[in-house]
Amino acid sequence: HVQLVESGGGSVQPGGSLGLSCAVSGTIARHFYMGWFRQGPGNEREGVASIDKNGKTDYADSVKGRFTISRDNAKNTVYLQMNSLKSVDTALYYCAWYEGGYWGQGTQVTVS
Length: 112
Fold this sequence. Notes:
Elements: E1 3-7, E2 10-12, E3 18-25, E4 34-39, E5 46-51, E6 57-59, E7 67-72, E8 77-82, E9 91-97, E10 102-103, E11 107-111
Parallel strand pairs: 2-11
Antiparallel strand pairs: 1-3, 3-8, 4-5, 4-9, 5-6, 7-8, 9-10, 9-11
């Protein structure tokens, strides 16, 4: 009954910003290693950002300096703030719990 539900996707112009949320239900996520992945048209799924239980973050080179992953354990939620968006960021973004192998349904981000 664990569920990850992404929200916040949408359409923005290049240079714009968008914030994504991943709400975890059915369990307490504060100890989880969480991440955001994306899959754009014609591309393989790639890791975007990750955050461990202590808040340590890692980013794909393509998004460093532009994206920020964070978590609010009190809200059982993981976030991805995306700034300076580019057309190449267009993708379906997924939230994932690494250890549990759970994925959200994805939220579409379109930059055009």
